[in-house]
Amino acid sequence: MPLLEARNLTAGYEKLKIVRGINLALNEGEILSVLGPNGAGKSTLLNAIFGVARIFEGKVFLNGKEITGKKPYEVARLGIGYAPQIQNVFPNLTVEENLELSAFKRNGIDVKKEMESIFKLFPEIERRRKNFAKTLSGGERQMLAMARALISKPLVLLLDEPTAGLSPKATSVLLKKVKEIVIELNVSVILVEQNVTKALETSNRVAILVGGEFVYQGNSNELTREEVEKMFFGEKVRQEL
Ligand SMILES: Nc1ncnc2c1ncn2[C@@H]1O[C@H](COP(=O)(O)OP(=O)(O)OP(=O)(O)O)[C@@H](O)[C@H]1O
Ligand SMILES: [Mg+2]
């Protein structure tokens, strides 16, 4: 049984259907990249899983339990951590305060203890623990966003463009960190990423979203960047779905 599964999911906002007929399965210990051009609906898909977007049709399961239509705080409690694309930290709170706020999402969490173990994984932000989030560098801020999503010990981590705006060096550091936490924290990841080459390197499997629909799903090592980008433009490179 997959850890996270979406079946025939159609979702969007108000009356607008943005993603349609999505079938997705995330297995334990896996990193799944969701790639696609701007506006394809990648963030909307994560929003739908997390209970932010409206679900018109289909179902979402976590560990075999249906979570379709649950509120974001309920989804978080059940074990999904989300680092959204925008507004993923509170700029006018310190690093510690940012972490404390999200730790409360899950019951029975020893906030102090979890914060120290998170800081072991992210020494880059431990050094800045008393500083306001708005004073962090881009890379540090993305690490804080990821740390906020992880502090409540989720089973599944949703990362929306965690490397946006980062230098190639900072991108590599951050994606290496993603691979590390999969092992260290036993978490499985859906990664939305603009950098196709790095996404293929980082993930086990890849799903390609174009115009709100998956056009391809397969193993990351079977695809090249060129093939992925051709699919972005609607070329039929492969038929595996
Ligand atoms: N809150 C919203 N209300 C209405 N429409 C929205 C909302 N958020 C996004 N959309 C629309 O949904 C479509 C898909 O947007 P989405 O942000 O999911 O794409 P994306 O693949 O994440 O793009 P990007 O790569 O630029 O982040 C766009 O046409 C966008 O205008
Ligand atoms: Mg997006």
Describe the structure.
There is one protein chain. The chain has 241 residues and is of the alpha/beta class. The protein has a single domain (4-232), classed as P-loop containing nucleotide triphosphate hydrolases (Rossmann fold). Helices cover 35% and strands 27% of the residues. It is built from 9 helices and 10 strands. The strands form 2 sheets. It has a 6-stranded mixed sheet with strand order 6-7-8-3-9-10, with helices on both faces. A 4-stranded antiparallel sheet has the order 2-1-4-5, covered by helices on one side. Strand 9 and strand 10 form a beta hairpin. Helix 3 (95-103) crosses helix 4 and helix 3 packs parallel to helix 6. It is globular. The two termini are 19 Å apart. The mean pLDDT is 94. It binds adenosine-5'-triphosphate and magnesium ion. Adenosine-5'-triphosphate binds at residues 13, 16, 18, 36, 38-44, 85.
Strands, helices and their partners?
Layout: E1 4-13, E2 16-26, E3 31-35, H1 42-50, E4 54-62, E5 65-66, H2 72-78, E6 80-83, H3 95-103, H4 111-121, H5 123-126, H6 138-150, E7 156-160, H7 168-184, E8 188-192, H8 196-202, E9 205-210, E10 213-219, H9 225-232
Parallel strand pairs: 3-8, 3-9, 6-7, 7-8
Antiparallel strand pairs: 1-2, 1-4, 4-5, 9-10
Helix pairs in contact: 3-4, 3-6
The chain binds adenosine-5'-triphosphate (ATP) and magnesium ion (MG).
